[in-house]
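Lecture 7 notes: from sequence to structure.
We start with the chain below.
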Amino acid sequence: MPTRLLALLLTSLALCATPAGAKSPAPSLIEQALACHDATDCPYFPEVYKNDRTFRLAFLVELKKANIRRPRWVPDGVTTPLTPVDLDGSPRLLTSVCEPHNCGHRFMLVYDPQEQSVAGTYTGLDKAGEVSTVVFGQPSMAEMDLLKRN
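Predicted structure tokens for the same chain:
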């Protein structure tokens, strides 16, 4: 009998500890981006880059693999919102960021929230001073087509 009483007491305490009007946690920035319907309600690259560790690390890891140094301007660059796109039935987020006052230096990114991976292109000057585009990550054919169209 004491065990049943203890279980009842613990259950009662657990119910009392949860406020009746408790709000569920706010959706993450990635969840917000996946749910946005137009650019006015989508989060922008700097906000996601600075506040979503998984997104930021996925981007930085792929840059490192491609021997691309992250430019200083990336966290505060000129950007587009993370907009949801559907690629072969899978959700992706498309965004871009470019150097302020010099959008000849820019990144185009496709983020896969399920795989937590980034693929994209970087356009800028190479060591010879020529404009070049470098692909990073491992974009699928559909992702590469999307990057080229944007």
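Points to note: The CA atoms of residues 94 and 110 lie 5 Å apart. The helical segments are 2-17, 29-35, 45-51, 53-65, 141-149.
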